[in-house]
Write a structure and sequence with these properties.
The protein has helices at residues 14-23, 67-77, 88-116, 122-144, 157-172, 180-190, 193-202, and strands at 3-8, 27-32, 56-59, 62-65. The chain is α+β, with helices and mostly antiparallel strands and 208 residues long. The protein has a 4-stranded mixed beta sheet, with helices on one face. This is Glutathione S-transferase.
Length: 208
């Protein structure tokens, strides 16, 4: 069966398209555009899932929401490809980064974005959040300085999960050449044929 991906432009769901391309699983994209004024997802997504957010996939009648849950679902569907490495230490790293992406790194980035849009005081408050973001980016840099991929020597679903927050950080939260290992990692994933194919399928994506 072909997996249906309910994909919102400029969003986390670009990771799912990339993962599907890496796995070589057949899929169909249903694109949704953001409201040009609010930048929110359109109400049509609520017909797919009550939260009205993307990504959501449909696979032979099964509806799966939340990026991390979808990623784990796809690893299982692909018989473990892009899943946990063989060694215990690498498995622990895999699990950590898989959850760190949305659980620890993404929240301060999102707060910085939202607060920065508040007139007059937003910029000052966002400046207070930047040190927290920098702490995370320094940690990521130290880890990527030790190994080519987040879990170890080969790419995994942990790298796919980490792509969006680091792309967002490069776009709006100070990630630059002062953290060369992280920038090199971003350049490396962007050069992958599967990533490039996913961009063609997904449409507008400002972070690549």
């Amino acid at each position: 069966m072909t997996i249906i991906v309910h994909h919102l432009e400029n969003s986390r769901s670009q990771r799912i398209l990339w993962m599907l391309e890496e796995l070589g699983l057949p899929y169909e994209v249903k694109r949704y555009a953001r409201d040009p004024k609010t930048m929110l997802a359109p109400p049509e997504l609520r017909r797919v899932h009550p939260l009205g957010k993307s990504p959501v996939i449909e696979d032979d009648g099964v509806v799966v929401a939340e990026t991390g849950a979808i990623v784990e679902y796809l690893v299982e569907k692909a018989d473990g490809r892009l899943g946990p490495p063989a060694h215990r230490e690498a498995v622990l790293r895999y699990r950590f980064w898989l959850h760190y992406a949305e659980g620890s790194l993404m929240p301060p980035l999102l707060v910085k974005l939202i607060i920065g849009r508040i007139p007059l005081v937003g910029g000052k408050i966002a400046g207070r959040i930047q040190p927290m973001v920098d702490r995370h980016l320094d940690y990521v840099e130290s880890e990527l300085s030790q190994r080519p991929w987040f879990a170890g020597d080969v790419i995994s679903a942990a790298d796919i999960m980490m792509s969006f927050p680091l792309e967002a950080a490069r776009n709006r939260a100070g990630l630059d050449a002062s953290r060369p290992a992280t920038i090199a990692w971003l350049d490396k994933i962007h050069a992958r044929p599967a990533y490039q194919a996913a961009l063609k399928e997904g449409g507008p994506y400002r972070y690549a």
